[in-house]
Amino acid sequence: MGKRKGKGLFGTLLVGLMAVGFVGTAHAGSVIVNTDYVLKNKDKAGTILLDARAEDGYKKGHIPGAINLGGKGASKVLRDVDARILPTAKLEKILGDAGITREAEIIVYSIKGDPSATVPFWILEYLGAEKAKVYMGGIDDWATAKHPLAADVKKLPAAKFTAKVRADRLATTDYVKKNLKNKEVQILDVRTTKEFSGDDIRALRGGHIAGSVNIPYEQAWVDPEAAKKLGAGQAKDRHGMALKDDKGLAAIYKAFDPKKEVVALCQTGTRSTLTYAVLRDMGYTKVRNYDDSWIVWGSNLDLPVANTSYFDFVKVNAAMKKLDALEQRIQALEPKKK
User: How many structural domains is the chain composed of?
Assistant: First the structure.
C-alpha cells in the first residue's frame, strides 16, 4: 500500500506527529505487507512465514521457508465446523505445536485477495500477537515477481504459544446487541448488496442490522468485479483483487470515524476479516470482527432486523420435489447394468 506524503518540511513534520500522537490516522504501523517486505524479512530470526492455504496447495509449491497448519488451511484449522473461532486453549496448542509463538513476527499469506489469509491474521491479533502481518498479494504476487517456490514440508520445533487475548478484537452477538444504539460503535456490513437488502437470504431471515452501513468487502479491490470475472472466465488471474491505494480506500470508508469503534460483519465472520485487515492497515485501532455474523443474528428471532425477509421453505420444498423427480427420470434413462 502506498505511503502518505506530506508537502514540504511542514508536511513532513505533520506526518511524523500524526504517527506518534494520532495512531487513529497513522500509517506507520502497517499490517499489510508487500512482496519486497516478505523477501527482505521472511528469513530473519524471530520471523515466521505462515502459508494459510490448504495442505495440498502448500505441497505443490510455496514461498521458501513457509510453514503450513495442514488440513484445509489455517482459516479452517483455527475455527470449528460452524466457522466459529476455537477456544483459546485449543488455539494455543495448535499454534504452539506448529512452532509459532505470540512474540514472533508472523507473516500470513494465501492466494491474492482471499479471506483465507485474513481469518488467521485476525485470530492472531485476537490472541495478542502484536507483530502479526498479512501478505495480501500472497502466492500470486510472489509468482508474478518470479521468485522461486519450494516443495519441501517445513516443520518448526514445537513452541509455547501463550495468548494475551485482546477481547476488543472480537465482537460477540451480545456485544453487538448491547451497542446497537451506542454512537461510539459503527457497524460495517461487508456482505453483498442483495444480502444486505434481504433479497439474498442465507439464514432464517434476510435483511440487516439496523443502523449498519453496507460496503461489500470487494469494494476495497482495484476491480470489485474481479472474482466474478475470474469465475466467468473473463479474467485469467487475480490481479484485480489488489487493494486500492490509500486515497481510494479513504474514499470508500469515509463514512467511518477512525476515532470510533468499527464492528465488521458478513455471513460467517469470514469475508469481514479482509475488511478488518484493511481498516487496521489504514490506522483504525478500534476494530472488531463479529465472529457469529449474520448466520447467527439472522437466525435468532429475538434480535432486531431491518428489511426483514424470510426464507421460503414452501418454495424450497417444491424445488426439492422437482429435483427428486428429475433425478428419477435421469436414472430411468440410464442403461441398466447387466
Answer: 2
Going by pLDDT thresholds of 50, 70 and 90, the confidence category of residue 321 is low
- Total-model pTM: 0.85
Residue range(s) defining the domain that contains residue 177: 168-215+253-313
CATH number at residue 207: 3.40.250.10
Whether 261 and 140 share a structural domain: no
* Same-domain status, 177 and 120: no
Whether residue 307 is found in the same domain as residue 174: yes
| Domain presence at residue 200 | yes
Q: What percent of the chain has pLDDT over 70?
A: 87
pLDDT tens-digit series, residues 139-187: 999 999 999 999 999 999 999 999 999 999 999 999 999 999 999 999 9
Edge-to-edge strands, sheet with 32-33: 32-33, 133-135, 105-109, 47-51, 67-68
Residues 161 and 184 in one domain: no
Q: What is the pLDDT of residue 320?
A: 59
